[in-house]
Design a protein that fits this description.
heterodimer, A: 112 residues, mainly alpha, B: 230 residues, alpha/beta, eight-stranded mixed beta sheet, 9 helices
Amino acid sequence: MKRIILIITIVSLTSCSAPTNLYTWNKYENSSYNFLKNTNENTTNKLSEEYKKIIKKQKGIRGEVPPGVYADYGFLLLQSNNMVQAREMLQKEIELYPESKVFIERIIKLTE
Amino acid sequence: MKKSIITLLLITSVVITSCTSTAPVLKSVAYKGMYDEKPLVALIMPPINRSTNIDAKEYFHSTIYTPIADAGYYVIPPFLSMEIMKKESAFDAELFINSPLNKFSEVFGADIAVFTIIHKWDKSSIGSNVSVEIEYIIKSTRTNQVLYTRRGEIKYDTSVSTGLAGIGGLVANLAVSAANTAAAKYVDVARICNYYILKDLPAGKYSQNNGIDGALFAGANKFKVNLSSQ
């Protein structure tokens, strides 16, 4: 029982003192909604800009680019036929998150 | 964004109107499957919209990715996975919720599939209340077992008081509320609902609480709550 109380206390203190979350997302969700609702040049560009900001600066606890960001940015680059940079982003996703390999390698093969 | 969520939650007055009155259960017991299987890779399935609001699906689809990543999981890139699901005619999650999910493990490398069912999304015609009933079901792609499920009825008051008194204040308040019922406001409502229900999710590999949060108490798996931005 004492151990449980200790763990709860540690977790609570850690949670309370944590300055931020694991990642920072800026205005990703609004840009994501606009892109989902109406995909056009304007919404695509705005979502791309969000990805660039997320990649450039992370103030979260991990200090790493969140999962999926490199790859989805790569997806937008694929859509605009920027194949070299797209593959570069997809590779970065695998490097940072090896667990993405099964899916992302499949996508890279589709682009070859 | 997390900072704004925390700020919003801090200023949000939460009134639990009812919840399951059973004895508190530890997360390690309530979500035993999650702690046993230790999933890492999450695949977001397109939300199942059973509400009368056709836009509700996009509100939730665009806001479910970040809380799962923030809980410490690897989330399959949502737009890339959506594209593949569309090409493979797998975009209707209703077809898979009661079917074997091992194919999602093979194609996406997913350990879990996250299903969202929007049962209700109603907005009041005069006021600024949004009433949402939402259910989350996380299933293992390996065992097909339900590892996490929560269902909540959330009433959210999107009105923001101008602080002005009298008739002038009433008109000003109505004008602010009308502006707040735009799509951006509803994205915020979905974001709050997602964070509120998924805050119970066991900490994933990338979270600092991974492996130790099982000693915390789990929230009720069915609940009603009133949230307000005032």
